[in-house]
Amino acid sequence: MITCSVCGIVNSELDTICVSCKSFLQARVDALNLFETIWGLIESPRATLRKIVLARHKNYAVVLGLVSGLTVFFDIAWMKQLGDRFGELVSLVGMGIVLGPILGVVALALVSLMLRLLSKFWRGKATKKNMFAATAYAFVPLAIAAVFVIPLELATFGIDFFGTNPPPALIKPLEYYLILGLKSVLWIWMAFLLIEAMMAANAFESKRRLPVASCVLGVMGILITAIRFA
Predict the structure, then answer these.
(1) What is the pLDDT of residues 73-114, one digit of tens each?
(2) Is the N-terminal amide bond of 166 cis, ω within 30° of 0?
(3) Phi/psi at 10 (nearest 5 deg)?
(4) The model's pTM
């Protein structure tokens, strides 16, 4: 919440002008700097996500969805053990390049929609545009995985990472569990950012953090379970 220095009225943290006296409260950036914003998500996630919500132009949101889709695709391929169905890595990678970005944008739109609908239970004020942008930047850990971790797993294991004959844990156990550990950390970071994104987009107070966290983890659990047993 922001208290107006002129009239003392308490405003929402997303207000730029006081609702009472119309005094200036805070500035809005015109556009977002991608790398500066990513660093901000590490250094000060809540403040950075609020900056994203307040920005006039939510640039890079769709790009992050497209890149994140590569991680979504290859993680699904690992969960569904698609390596047993593909004879060559080239075929799987080709499918990932084609379907991954589409899958990423669909996942981004679906998650942002679900979080926005759930936020209405607590009278959330998130607009479609703000929730979509905040969710997109919460997908940054998946984009990082797509750039650094996915190439590592493909180079280290090839098609064997996604199969069971033989299991990748038996081929190179240290490398396998190291990669799984890195990806687990990135997925946990994404879950944390999604919580902060939902808080920032709706200007929720701290007391809403627990129910918001429950919503985010519930949505992620539902989607992962649906994919696992599809």
Answers:
(1) 999 999 999 998 887 899 999 999 999 999 999 999 999 999
(2) yes
(3) -85, 125
(4) 0.90
